[in-house]
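Lab meeting, item 3. Inverse folding demo.
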């Protein structure tokens, strides 16, 4: 399912154009398994939850902040267990947890480039109440590199259960199960999306209309970043990520 890795440095993802004025200086690298670094309303979490499945390391840092536009980057070298995620370095911003039916929009912007065994993805979790155990995971994969696949109930490579177009972008919808959590992954159908400016609410509305997702489910976690499987001398650069929860 995966391609052989060769060692080289590469640009993995960029978000929109670079900020014209950096208001925050470049921060120090955070290289611990669960370290975090914050600026403005954003926090970058290392979240190397699968580090024990391979060998390597990863660091991340803030590169700048212009208004609500965050520039950040992460570098890594991971090997071993090519089918296992090593980390999900991601950005979070605080929001009020409430049922998804009460959100009017979640506008966001991101640009993705090229990579290998990794993705560029939003990862969100839903639950029956603001602090209940998670019941659903909804992912939006805008970039898929190196033949990786999301969690699937029907084998690998997975067979899509639907092929919706949301915000003008065609996706394959993959359904999986992780313990008691139902996982829906919207995986970009064709080439990686090279310029994305959209709204996340229509993804939940689609699941409500077509897959029985209740509008009473609370949005509990909202993250954006990269799931890394393997890579050597790899780098993801984000030059202008923004999101707002309404």
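The presenter then showed the designed sequence:
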């Amino acid at each position: 399912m995966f391609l052989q890795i060769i060692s080289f440095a590469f640009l993995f993802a960029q978000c929109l154009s670079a900020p014209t004025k950096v208001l925050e200086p470049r921060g120090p690298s955070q290289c611990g398994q669960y370290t975090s670094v914050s600026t403005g309303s954003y926090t970058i979490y290392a979240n190397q939850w699968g580090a024990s499945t391979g060998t390597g390391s990863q660091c991340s840092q803030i590169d700048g902040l212009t208004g609500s536009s965050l520039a950040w980057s992460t570098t890594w070298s991971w090997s071993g267990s090519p089918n296992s995620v090593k980390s999900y370095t991601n950005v979070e911003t605080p929001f009020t947890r409430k049922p998804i039916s009460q959100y009017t929009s979640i506008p966001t912007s991101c640009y993705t480039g090229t990579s290998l065994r990794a993705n560029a993805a939003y990862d969100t979790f839903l639950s029956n109440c603001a602090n209940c155990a998670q019941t659903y995971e909804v992912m939006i994969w805008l970039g898929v590199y190196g033949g990786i696949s999301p969690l699937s109930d029907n084998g690998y490579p997975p067979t899509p259960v639907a092929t919706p177009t949301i915000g003008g972008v065609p996706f394959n919808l993959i359904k999986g199960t992780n313990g008691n959590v139902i996982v829906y992954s919207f995986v970009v159908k064709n080439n990686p999306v090279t310029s994305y400016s959209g709204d996340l609410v229509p993804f939940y509305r689609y699941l409500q209309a077509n897959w029985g997702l209740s509008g009473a489910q609370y949005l509990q976690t909202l993250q954006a970043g990269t799931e890394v499987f393997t890579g050597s001398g790899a780098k993801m650069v984000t030059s202008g990520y923004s999101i707002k929860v309404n």
